[in-house]
């Protein structure tokens, strides 16, 4: 049985003079044109690797959008034995970077999608391109995310004698918080809202601090506040939908199912993805998200017009 080599990459896109363009990379070692991609570091999540590899290969900082089809193809492992490379892909919008080339790439070309289709050297790379074109026609490329986060692992209640709202993360939870920070960075989160409980604050605070963002804490997102009334927590999600900014909301196992339920009625029921997306939301609500899990909802539109076009569940 061959081993699996996990990798990740992106299709950076833009509109120029009314045309959809994508960024291809040229690798002189193979003299081929393909997408920016690379292998995962140990313990790295694919979404984090996709952003890192894009920066390393193109000099561009990107924010991930909707996921695209993955690719699998045979390669040789480091020992020369048979292996399968599995590459996860996302659409991506450029948010910064110098464009300086530093890593195995000698040229980055922004081209229209027809030129990209002809220039790509591997048929498997056209599957992602066609999915990107379909997403653009469905007006899903300009999506924005809300990342729902269940707080990381905390000191067990039985070992804590103080106010439960002040219960801190344990060593595993602190490691999860670091991983959560990396995931939120991959999706370009610019607004962070959290339950006022210590274990929630500590889960998303590393990200807020690292990116110079204000961390907004809300008692209504705590277990205690939610038990008194669900209205305040629901209002927090509605405000995020009105703003339409890339956001993260951190709360608790008993609270999140109700908040996710607000989005189930907003799923776009496309023939290809609608039922799958709805099922992901139902499962996360019914089975309860894991501690430290991030559920990324990709939305288009704002306010009452906001619709969910895809969902990703990410364990840290």
TrEMBL record:
Gene3D superfamilies: Nucleoside Triphosphate Pyrophosphohydrolase, Phosphoglycerate mutase-like. Pfam families: His_Phos_1, NUDIX. It comes from the Bacteria. InterPro entries: His_Pase_superF_clade-1, His_PPase_superfam, NUDIX_hydrolase-like_dom_sf, NUDIX_hydrolase_CS, NUDIX_hydrolase_dom, Nudix_hydrolase_domain. Residues 3-133 form the Nudix hydrolase domain. PROSITE patterns: NUDIX, NUDIX_BOX. GO terms for molecular function: hydrolase activity. Keywords: Hydrolase. PANTHER family: BIS(5'-NUCLEOSYL)-TETRAPHOSPHATASE [ASYMMETRICAL], DIADENOSINE 5,5-P1,P4-TETRAPHOSPHATE PYROPHOSPHOHYDROLASE MUTT. This is NUDIX hydrolase. It comes from Terrabacter ginsenosidimutans.
């Amino acid at each position: 049985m061959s081993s699996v080599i996990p990798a990740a990459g992106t299709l950076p896109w833009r509109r120029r003079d009314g045309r959809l363009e994508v960024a291809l990379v040229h690798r002189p070692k193979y003299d081929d044109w393909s997408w920016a991609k690379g292998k995962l570091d140990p313990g790295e999540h694919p979404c984090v690797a996709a952003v890192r590899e894009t920066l390393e290969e193109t000099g561009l900082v990107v924010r991930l959008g909707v996921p695209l089809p993955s690719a699998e193809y045979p390669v040789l492992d480091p020992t020369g034995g048979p292996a399968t490379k599995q590459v996860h892909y996302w659409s991506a919008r450029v948010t910064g970077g110098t464009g300086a080339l530093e890593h195995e790439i000698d040229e980055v070309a922004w081209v229209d999608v027809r030129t990209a289709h002809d220039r790509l050297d591997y048929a498997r790379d056209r599957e992602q391109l066609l999915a990107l074109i379909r997403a653009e026609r469905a007006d899903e490329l300009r999506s924005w995310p809300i990342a729902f986060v269940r707080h990381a692992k905390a000191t067990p209640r039985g070992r804590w004698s103080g106010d439960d709202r002040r219960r801190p993360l344990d060593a595993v939870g602190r490691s999860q918080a670091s991983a959560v920070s990396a995931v939120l960075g991959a999706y370009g989160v610019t607004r962070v809202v959290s339950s006022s409980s210590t274990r929630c604050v500590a889960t998303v605070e590393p990200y807020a601090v690292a990116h110079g963002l204000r961390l907004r804490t809300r008692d209504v997102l705590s277990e205690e506040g939610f038990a008194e009334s669900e209205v305040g927590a629901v209002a927090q999600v509605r405000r995020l939908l009105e703003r339409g900014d890339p956001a993260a909301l951190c709360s608790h196992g008993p609270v999140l199912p109700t908040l996710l339920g607000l989005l189930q009625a907003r799923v776009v029921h496309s023939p290809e993805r609608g039922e799958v997306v709805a099922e992901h939301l139902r499962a996360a609500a019914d089975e309860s998200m894991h501690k430290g899990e991030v559920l990324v909802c990709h939305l288009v539109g704002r306010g009452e017009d906001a619709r969910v076009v895809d969902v990703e569940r990410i364990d840290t």
